[in-house]
Design brief:
globular, 199 residues
């Protein structure tokens, strides 16, 4: 049985997805400095011409790879019905989901690009709107999970306390820090957050 031929749009979307997945893999495995567009194309099975057709510059490709990864992570995190849980459980699950989502490949890839963007104006310009979109989508997801548990006078405070703790813990993991200490710190924050926002 022959498979139906892909439409032009489906082929375009497939090529972009292959390039973006390969970019994330390279950032995680090789780091920004050792990631080349040639290596990305080799892993994706795509020609350099096709890559340049979809993403004109390396910076553009890198930034869109992060957006692609965030979209997939937010979609997977949205599958958990945290809003149906009682207050304390909802707060704890919200923190757990953010840790699971943002401490793995996303954290590693983003960290590589943030550090590189400090001295690369083109990459910094490409990353800026992606970084803002990441913050917006994280906020929407967090508020959706916590619902009425978020304090109306400071609605973003629990989110950014959590995100910044997770970024620090993720960096600690990348540098080979003590996993038991990370677990202890995350559990301590969950205990504080549940007492503060889960009542």
């Amino acid at each position: 049985m022959t498979r139906p031929r892909l439409t032009q749009q489906e082929r375009t979307e497939r090529t972009r997805e292959l390039l973006l997945d390969a970019t994330v893999d390279c950032l995680v495995e090789l780091g920004y400095a050792r990631t080349s567009t040639n290596e990305i194309c080799r892993r994706a099975g795509v020609s350099r011409g096709a890559q340049q057709h979809h993403f004109a510059t390396k910076a553009d490709l890198m930034a869109h790879a992060i957006d692609h990864l965030v979209t997939k992570l937010v979609a997977s995190m949205s599958e958990y019905p945290a809003a149906s849980l009682p207050g304390p459980d909802r707060v704890a699950m919200g923190i757990d989901l953010l840790w699971q989502g943002y401490s793995g490949s996303l954290s590693t890839a983003v960290m590589e690009l943030w550090v590189a963007a400090r001295t690369d104006p083109e990459l910094r310009a490409a990353m800026h709107p992606i970084d803002k979109a990441l913050a917006r989508r994280t906020g929407e997801l967090f508020h959706e999970m916590l619902g009425d548990q978020v304090p109306p006078d400071q609605p973003d405070l629990p989110l950014w306390l959590t995100v910044n703790l997770i970024r620090g813990l993720a960096l600690d993991a990348m540098l080979g820090g003590d996993p038991a200490r990370r677990d202890q710190l995350l559990q301590e924050w969950k205990t504080i957050a549940v007492k503060t926002y889960g009542a």
